């Protein structure tokens, strides 16, 4: 009986023959969440969940960064790897290696890195420490003529003892990779 009475009251408010509003509320007046400037490649931006200063946000950023590494291996463009790392030696070595391949007109076939498992990151202020198990598919490096560069190619590998640190950047409202250990 109470539900019927409440429903009746709600419907009576709609029966007012007054003039309807000519405008709809704006997005700013209906959303309390601020909009973030897109980061990353236009066709592969940092996902919103990776732009939260939480454990889940740090984990989402790590997943995004690994996919960004895969993208950089594919197109040999390290611009975004560099922009999302800050003082990360492993990241710098990876970027330099890919940059060197690009300068020699080499290409990489295969080599996708996947996350086998990731433990929830440990948040300590603006830093998040993570432990991750990685696997990398076999990859082949080809020179400009299409010849295999055996010394630069590698079989599939697993790296169960990997991890690192990310740091929150208030300027970009995103995480930055500050340490990456692959092992």
Molecular structure report:
This protein has helices at residues 2-12, 27-30, 55-75, 79-83, 89-103, and strands at 107-110, 113-118, 122-124, 127-136, 139-142, 157-169, 174-181. By secondary structure, it is of the alpha+beta class. The chain has a domain at 44-166: Nuclear Transport Factor 2, Chain: A (Roll). The strands form two sheets. Strands 2, 3, 4, 6 and 7 form a five-stranded antiparallel sheet that branches. A two-stranded antiparallel sheet has the order 1-5. The longest helix is centred in the middle third of the chain and has 21 residues, at 55-75. The termini are far apart. Residues 1-32 have low confidence and may be disordered. It holds the Pfam family DUF6318. Residues 46-157 form the DUF6318 domain. Residues 18-33 have a biased composition (Polar residues).
Descriptive keywords:
31% helix; 26% strand; DUF6318 family protein; globular; 5 helices; Nuclear Transport Factor 2, Chain: A; DUF6318
